[in-house]
Amino acid sequence: MSENKNSKSKILIVDDVPKNIQVAANILQNQGYKMAFAQDGPTALKMIRSTPFDLILLDIMMPDMDGFEVCQRLREFDEAKDIPVLFLTAKTDTESIVRGFNAGAMDYVFKPINEPELLARVRTHLAHYQSRKDLKAVNARLRKEVAERRQAEQRYVNMYQNAVQGMFQSTEDGRIIRLNPAYVDILGYESAEEVIALEDVSQAFFDPPEQRAKMLAALKKNGILTNYELKIQRKDGTPAWIMVNARLAKDTGGEPIIEGIVIESTAQKQADEELRRSRKQYHYQATHDSLTGLYNTRYLYTALEKLIPACAAKNRPFSLIFMDVDNFKRVVDTYGHLKGSRTLQEMAKTIHDCLAEPAYGVAYGGDEFVIVLPGVDKTQAIEKAMEIHAQIGKTAYLTSYCHEIYISASFGLAAYPSDATGIKELLALADQAMFNVKEDGKDGVGATGE
């Protein structure tokens, strides 16, 4: 039986709670990963200095030395600064996430641990780390091999034929003169002769063809290319990414040619894209309400802290609308909690459809919403509130469930700087204005000072 490919990867789990270590270790050991454990930061740092690890799962909240400090100190070790660090944490606030990335973390795994998510992130970052290690190793070998080429031509010929990286010589107008088997494999062709027979490689495998002209311009400008990234198209049409190291040279007849070395970087490119999507998803989850898709209160307070000084600097107003669904409990009691949640989702869409950037809606909690209107004074805000109020009133909800219910809402608003200049004061005034509408019979719009 062949060895599990994961058995060569060694992972360090750092957490002051043994149960947390056990949960993660059980998941990873079942996949064949080698494991090591530490219950505090100093012990972890000592182990990292003496033992090579391929990935570190690091808890944030630990006594004496938290995960942020451990990660920062780790990045000071030359032998370990590139090891991917994934924070294990229950903290999902934007500030902690940003602080973690600034400390050098590659990603987050939130507690309680989800097994498929943990395995997916571990595999992605191990692949990324291995690709980077391979690229460094290949570059080191290239430097040595090029030096040896000048010393022994026969030795170069052997290396040219057997090297794992692609090698080529081409004319400036795009015709391949010579290439080794590794480059033939990267391009997806059967033989070197098949590639050499192509009249113009720009059309054959550059994606798009204009990329070769850009590469040639950069090469002529600098005389050399180092790790120049290109997207190519294999013979069968599938995409691939390569890193080109090339220089201008002359053949035996004195004619100008291009010679270079090619490293396929498709795996690294795919790992980078997966990491980018993951970070984008985390940013969205950190700032949006999972039920309605509107912004959440964490985003609201952070955004208002920036909006107030920005409006003060430009002497611009903005308004806040506090909105509460009238008699929402009746909807839940009549149709159930699931359909009540669906009603809030559909109402959030009504709010969103009435807004244009930079205005935005916030799921404030339960059946309450906040609407932020940058650059809008109180008079304009009242008009916008009445527009949303009217749109909600004439919209039939739960039609996908074969119901047709109509709902009303109460609105209260306050404006900066005419009503208040602080976040808490503005929210409180808008909330009070909305409460006054509720007291007067609901289903209306009210403003501070009215």
Question: What is the fold's blueprint, element by element?
Answer:
Layout (H helix, E strand, L loop, with lengths): L9 E5 L3 H12 L4 E5 L2 H10 L4 E5 L7 H8 L10 E5 L4 H10 L3 E4 L4 H37 L1 H10 L3 E6 L4 E4 L1 H7 L4 H5 L4 H5 L4 H13 L1 E10 L5 E12 L5 E9 L1 H22 L9 H18 L3 E8 L2 H8 L1 H17 L6 E6 L2 E7 L3 H16 L15 E8 L6 H17 L5 E3 L3
Parallel strand pairs: 1-2, 1-3, 3-4, 4-5, 14-15
Antiparallel strand pairs: 6-7, 6-10, 8-9, 9-10, 11-13, 11-14, 12-13
Helix pairs in contact: 2-3, 5-6, 5-11, 13-14
Number of strands: 15
* CATH architecture annotation name of the largest domain: 2-Layer Sandwich
Sheet-strand content, in percent, reads 15-25%
SS-derived structural category: alpha/beta
With helices defined by DSSP (H or I, 4 residues minimum), what is the helix count? 16
CATH class of the largest domain: Alpha Beta
Helical fraction equals 40-55%
Q: Tell me the count of domains.
A: 3
